[in-house]
Design goal:
The protein has 394 residues and is an alpha/beta fold. The protein contains 13 helices and eleven strands.
């Protein structure tokens, strides 16, 4: 048998040694590989392949120009500015493919009309507090704030890891809306009162601006709750149409100038211990979005939820110092007797709210379970530490 010598041709073979048919086949395979790589790059780039842009030519991405309506005055500190920041972040994360135009309260729809506008497709997104929609379902209150309810960190924990988001999706989905947490003002103040509140009896006959279930609590104590958007409160208070008001906290209250009318400033805000704000999208729009677009909306909302809460905490302390030391505001605490009665009536209101329908009951049960865990942990963690820290500071 003739012995054959096998040569390593990896580096020695030239085009002259290869038949033309093999060359054509090799070139075809190489071309197919390059096209496949370009397609993969385009896919990983989210389909963002505009003419003159990045990625392979000939593939055009979908660009969106969305309208966001809000419940807030234009450029109002924390609320109005936070919405603008949220819109900008969505645009930045999408490299400009999702552009959001923000409309302040009254510019496109009324402050309390954002939900209907988004549900019906007249606007694409809203930024507001969910308790404004309690006329649709009382269960919406739990996704904003309820009296004697959750702190900011606690409601975030419930929504993200305690089943809250799934219940929220079910509730909002009935109205063609998809919503996310997208801001929090933290624990609110008890409000501005023209007269002293020394006992529960002092709520009798009081006309107070307080939306949501907190207003229902005071109604059962003899007060008359009034729902007014932020821009209407100062005039109503100055003209005597209301006797008291709550808004948010020192930073925003100072900006509105309530201290020029009333000097009694009560705390704590039993009605809104951690006021969550939300970004709501038309559900048809949401379902039309790509996974990348959805991820951008979720990430931008989560970021604003954290940033807004930090911003309010950073500014409330300084604003409170200004109100007390420069404007003569009288900082007063509700008595334990008053707070205990407010807690008792709050519990009754929440249970009554849960009895409204089957979904409200499930939302309430989930909320209450999560709150119990948070209260138990909070008592031996942040609450205990805050007490320990204050011992020396006192």
């Amino acid at each position: 048998m003739t012995k054959k010598t096998i040569h390593n041709t990896t580096n020695s073979t030239t085009s002259a040694d290869v038949p033309a048919k093999m060359l054509n086949r090799r070139n075809l395979l190489r071309g197919a590989t390059l096209v496949g790589a370009a397609a993969l790059t385009a896919a990983c780039d989210g389909g963002k392949d505009k003419v003159g842009g990045k990625g392979a030519p000939g593939i055009v991405s979908k660009q969106r120009k969305l309208k966001m309506v809000t419940a807030w005055p234009k450029n109002f500190p924390g609320l109005g500015t936070g919405v603008e920041r949220l819109a900008k972040r969505i645009e930045t994360l999408s490299d400009g493919d999702i552009q959001v135009k923000v409309y302040a309260a009254g510019e496109l729809v009324g402050a309390l009309d954002g939900f209907d506008a988004v549900s019906q497709g007249k606007a694409d997104m809203y930024h507001a507090a969910e308790y404004y929609w309690q006329g649709k379902s009382p269960a919406f209150n739990f996704f904003a704030a309820v009296p004697m309810g959750m702190l900011a960190s606690e409601i975030t924990a419930w929504v993200r890891f305690g089943g809250g988001q799934e219940l929220w999706d079910e509730l909002s989905g009935r109205f063609n809306v998809k919503a996310f947490l997208a801001g929090n003002t933290g624990t609110q103040m008890g409000g501005w009162y023209k007269k002293d509140i020394n006992s529960i009896a002092d709520f009798q006959g009081l006309r107070i601006r307080m939306p949501g279930l907190g207003g229902e609590v005071l109604k059962r104590l003899g007060a008359t709750p009034v729902t007014k958007q932020g821009g209407e409160i100062f005039q109503a208070l100055s003209q005597g149409n209301i006797d008291a008001t709550e808004w948010i906290g020192p930073w925003n209250d100072l900006a509105f100038g309530f201290h020029t009318i009333v000097k009694n400033y009560y705390y704590p805000g039993f009605h809104e211990p951690g006021s969550a704000l939300s970004l709501g999208l038309n559900k048809d729009l949401w379902e039309d979005m790509s996974p990348k677009e959805k991820a951008i909306i979720e990430a931008a909302s989560a970021a604003e939820n954290d940033i807004m809460y930090a911003e309010f905490n950073a500014n409330n302390g300084r604003a409170l110092d200004t109100l007390v030391n420069e404007h003569g505001v009288k900082l007063k605490r509700f008595s334990d007797e008053i707070l205990a009665k407010l807690a008792e009536v709050s519990d009754q209101v929440l249970r009554d709210t849960a009895s409204n329908d089957e979904l409200s009951k499930r939302v309430y049960d989930s909320y209450k379970t999560s709150r119990a865990y948070s209260m138990r942990w909070g008592a031996i963690s942040e609450q205990a530490f805050a007490h320990a820290r204050s011992l020396y500071e006192k």
